[in-house]
Design a protein that fits this description.
- By secondary structure, this protein is mainly alpha-helical.
- The protein has helices at 12-37, 40-63, 71-97, 102-125.
- Helix 1 packs antiparallel against helix 2 and helix 3 packs antiparallel against helix 4 (102-125).
- It is globular.
- The protein starts with 11 loop residues before the first helix and ends with a helix.
- The relative contact order is 0.12.
- The mean pLDDT is 90.
């Protein structure tokens, strides 16, 4: 197993944030446009599908520089995306139970989810052997 030195990871966090913002923007454009045309359930499913596909490619190829993306790596990425969605839901509902506004919670939980996402992708999903 190859351990990457800090110099080999230079710029990785910055790229992760840049591509994360790009993915967020594209996903939300798809969501906003599709909400005008199709029911909410299908709009959210479509936007999340776009989010996963774009994220898988951008993070895998551009951030973590994986040469060959495959079904196994995609399944790990999809599993992580599902876990992050679930954590987001649980945190929002839990804090709402204690009287914290859902919108405020959603805004403040994003940095935690970004850190979890980055570390999980680096150390599990796109880990280099």
């Amino acid at each position: 197993m190859k351990i990457l030195r800090k110099s080999e990871r230079k710029g990785e966090k910055r790229l992760f944030l840049i591509f994360g913002i790009l993915n967020f923007l594209i996903t939300n454009v798809v969501l906003q446009l599709s909400l005008l045309l199709i029911p909410t359930l299908f709009s959210t499913m479509l936007s999340q599908t776009v989010n996963v596909l774009i994220g898988y490619f951008l993070y895998g190829k551009k951030v973590f520089k994986i040469k060959e993306l495959n079904k196994f790596v995609f399944k790990k990425y999809l599993f992580l995306a599902t876990i992050l969605w679930f954590l987001n839901f649980v945190f929002i509902e839990a804090l709402f139970y204690f009287g914290v506004n859902k919108n405020i919670t959603a805004i403040f939980i994003i940095p935690l989810l970004v850190v979890i996402s980055y570390l999980s992708q680096r150390n599990f999903v796109f880990k280099k052997n």
